[in-house]
Design goal:
about 270 residues, six-stranded mixed sheet, 7 helices, 6 strands, about 15% strand
Length: about 270
């Protein structure tokens, strides 16, 4: 445990150099950077003082800082004119993580969520899904209980559920904005590339965009059943889903995709 804390302490020192210093130098385009940095510093202090047992909160904030750095670096800054962190929705106490205005005049809201399922074994749930045919017809998910099958199953179930829940939450925020005709909304999901992969998000993003599940989407039957059972109708006000992958202990993203799309073979479009 102590060795783990030493590694994290060294990682946080690297974050200070490679991310914090960059954001502090962009006061003109990112005037609310200090608000984000203060939140990071509070989590950092809580970790160093042993006030928290895990670094999940730090991971989430660092991913937000990585995204802000990406905004500033797109085309070497020629696309982003201003960034605002946690812009308030008028008349409410709710905020959306980032508001970005481009040099072309586009106004884009980004809500950011890190999806990192807690460690849990869902082997029994996986077996029930197999037994009762809950997975989509003509698809397979073959796991072995002796090779972390239960943990893998939990990560897959939990991440897909989080995609849907965070999407619903963001749609509810969007509904609170009265005049949104000239605005764009994007949902950013951050992960480590291990607990879930980009192709898992592609399945969900294609369903959201088209209103129909991909034939190769293992979770389509379960998700459709849940939406119908709960009476949930997606408003589809989110224009795009984005993907940010950062593998620990990297302080920069390994991959950023601004418009997540699945393979076009089943759709005939892009």
């Amino acid at each position: 445990m102590e060795e783990s804390r030493k590694l994290i302490a060294e990682f946080l020192r690297q974050v200070d150099v490679s991310i914090c210093s960059v954001l502090r130098g962009e006061e003109t385009r990112f005037p609310s950077a200090e608000k984000l940095l203060r939140k990071y510093q509070a989590e950092q202090a809580a970790w160093e003082n042993h006030s928290i047992e895990h670094a999940r909160g730090i991971t989430e904030i660092i991913n937000e800082m990585c995204l802000a750095k990406c905004f500033l670096e797109v085309n070497k800054g020629n696309c982003t004119s201003i960034i605002e962190y946690e812009r308030a929705i008028p008349g409410t106490t709710k905020t959306i993580d980032f508001f970005v205005k481009t040099t072309q005049g586009s106004c884009i809201y980004f809500d950011v969520k890190t999806v990192h399922p807690i460690e849990k074994n869902s082997w029994e749930r996986y077996q029930r899904a197999m037994q009762y045919g809950y997975f989509t017809r003509n698809t397979e998910l073959i796991l072995d209980s002796e090779y972390s099958g239960g943990e893998i199953a939990h990560d897959l179930f939990a991440s897909r559920e989080k995609f849907l829940q965070y999407t619903i939450d963001f749609e509810e925020k969007i509904e609170l904005i009265r005049d949104r005709e000239q605005l764009f909304f994007r949902m950013v999901f951050c992960g480590d590339g291990f607990h879930w992969r980009k192709d898992h998000l592609e399945d969900f993003a294609d369903f959201y965009r088209t209103g129909r599940h991909r034939p190769d989407d293992k979770f389509s039957s379960m998700e459709a059943h849940y939406l119908n059972e709960q009476g949930i109708v997606l408003s589809r006000t989110i224009h795009d889903f984005c993907y940010l992958q950062r593998k620990p202990p990297q302080t920069v993203p390994n991959e950023v995709v601004w418009r997540v799309r699945g393979p076009a073979i089943f759709w005939g479009d892009s």
